[in-house]
Amino acid sequence: MPAHISQRVYDGTTGGSVQGGRRTHIIQILRDTKEPLSVVQVANMVGIHANTARFHLESLADAGLAARETEASGKPGRRRILYTGILPNQTHERAQGYRLLAQILTGTIASKCIALSDEMYEVGRQWGSYLTSRPAPFEKLDEAEIDQRVMDKLDALWFAPESVAGPRPHMLLHNCPFIDSARDAPHVVCRLHVGMMNGALEELRSTQRVIELESLVQAHLCRAWLGPAAEVQDREVAIILPDTTE
Fold first, then answer.
1. What span, in angstroms and rounded, lies between the C-alpha atoms of 221 and 240?
2. pLDDT of residue 89
3. pLDDT in tens, 102-134
4. What is the CA 155 to chain-centroid distance, rounded?
5. Is residue 3 helix, strand or coil?
6. Is the pTM value of this prediction over 0.70?
7. What angle do CA 136, 142, 144 make, to 5 degrees?
8. Which of 77, 144, 179, 226 has the maximum number of C-beta atoms within 10 A of its C-beta?
């Protein structure tokens, strides 16, 4: 049987590698833990060797996605290096420039083009398709493999995704890389992201699509509900915004 050779599109992400998944996992651990963590603590929590954990932590620190500090200790001996997580939508200087650009462009689009939900969805759909490696002709992927490929891509783009199976399958996105822009113009940013997810699912020949997105149900959490692809063809994908009246 011939090997499957598919064209890879470089988009500046880690693109579904094991490293991409581990580093997102480590960033989540660092963010969700109140106290800074050592190499050994992270290694035990992730289930990897201390040297591997150190490699990932140093790579994240060099990229501005984790902060290093030396342990304050009155004990004799070498003091440990501790790490704290910094997500891309926080304060890293290099990411700040991209966030500012995103906010400027999003604000301009939102002010100049009021009724553009359909256009933004279609732009997202085309980019989602472009950034996804197309299966070979006649290759059939099962939904589990498709789900994993989409998770890998979202993980590489720092959405920190989680797939939830069951009677109502859905995806949890634990981080929005452009959270400020999404809050200001969800009809631009959220619609674009939904289109990207559906473009990827379509390219992978999935029978499912995102049929509804609950935006920011918590500070760093969106929920994308999945359903039959035919439902998206029949109606617009619903974007449910947080209630800000309380």
1. 13
2. 52
3. 888 888 888 877 667 788 899 999 999 998 888
4. 5
5. coil
6. no
7. 125
8. 226
